[in-house]
Write a structure and sequence with these properties.
This protein is α+β, with helices and mostly antiparallel strands. It has 6 helices and 6 strands; from the N terminus they run E-E-H-E-E-H-H-E-E-H-H-H. It is 41% helix and 17% strand. The strands form 2 sheets. A 4-stranded mixed beta sheet has the order 1-2-3-4. A two-stranded antiparallel sheet has the order 5-6. A hairpin with a 2-residue loop joins strand 5 and strand 6.
Length: 177
C-alpha cells in the first residue's frame, strides 16, 4: 500500500475549555467524497439542532499538507458550531468521512450564502429548505479547496451538467431561454 492508498487519520483532542481539536493527516482537498443522501441527512440534523438551540464547543482543525506544512481552520461562529456538533453527534467527526461530510455541509452553506446564481436551485423557509438534488450531489463530490470551501467556478461547472434544463437551470448554465 503506497502513501496515497493509506486511509486518512483523524486524531481528536479536547481542551480544558471544552474545545475540540482535530489533527488530520491530509489536506482539506484530499478529504473523500461523501454520499449525497448523507449530506442531506446532515443538513436536516443541523437544522434540527439549530431549532433546538443545541450549541457546540469551539472546534479547531489542523490539516497536514503534502509538503509537511499545515492548514489551520477554526470554527467559532455559533451556527457553524451548531451544525458541526450535529454532524459529530450523528456521524462523528473522528473519521475522514465524517469530517468530509461536516466540511462539505459548511462549504455548501457558505456557497449558497454568496452565490447569487444558485438562488433558483434552493428555497429556504421557516419550515425547512428545499434543495435541488444536484446541489447535494455536486457538494458531495466536488473537492474542497485548501481553505475547506468550494471553488465557486469549479462547483458551478460541476453542477451545470446535472441540472435539469428548466428556466431556472438555464439561468445557471447561461443557456438561452
Amino acid at each position: 500500500m503506497d502513501a496515497q492508498e493509506q486511509p486518512l487519520t483523524v486524531r481528536v483532542g479536547a481542551g480544558p475549555d471544552g474545545s475540540v481539536t482535530y489533527l488530520v493527516d491530509a489536506s482539506p482537498e484530499a478529504l473523500p467524497p461523501v454520499r449525497g443522501r448523507d449530506l442531506e441527512r446532515a443538513w436536516y440534523a443541523a437544522r434540527e439542532a439549530a431549532i433546538a438551540g443545541t450549541w457546540s464547543s469551539i472546534r479547531g482543525f489542523r490539516f497536514r499538507r503534502p509538503d509537511g506544512s499545515h492548514t489551520d481552520l477554526a470554527l467559532a461562529d455559533p451556527h457553524a458550531l451548531c451544525w458541526a456538533g450535529a454532524v459529530d453527534r450523528t456521524v462523528g467527526l473522528g473519521s475522514s468521512y465524517g469530517l468530509a461530510l461536516c466540511l462539505r455541509l459548511l462549504a455548501l452553506v457558505d456557497l449558497l450564502a454568496r452565490a447569487r446564481w444558485a438562488i433558483p436551485l434552493f428555497r429556504l423557509e421557516r419550515d425547512g429548505a428545499d434543495l435541488h438534488p444536484s446541489l447535494l450531489r455536486t457538494a458531495a463530490t466536488t473537492p474542497l479547496t485548501a481553505e475547506a470551501r468550494f471553488d465557486e467556478m469549479r462547483f458551478r461547472a460541476s453542477l451545470a451538467p446535472h441540472v435539469m434544463q428548466s428556466p431556472a437551470a438555464r439561468r445557471l448554465t447561461g443557456a438561452p431561454a
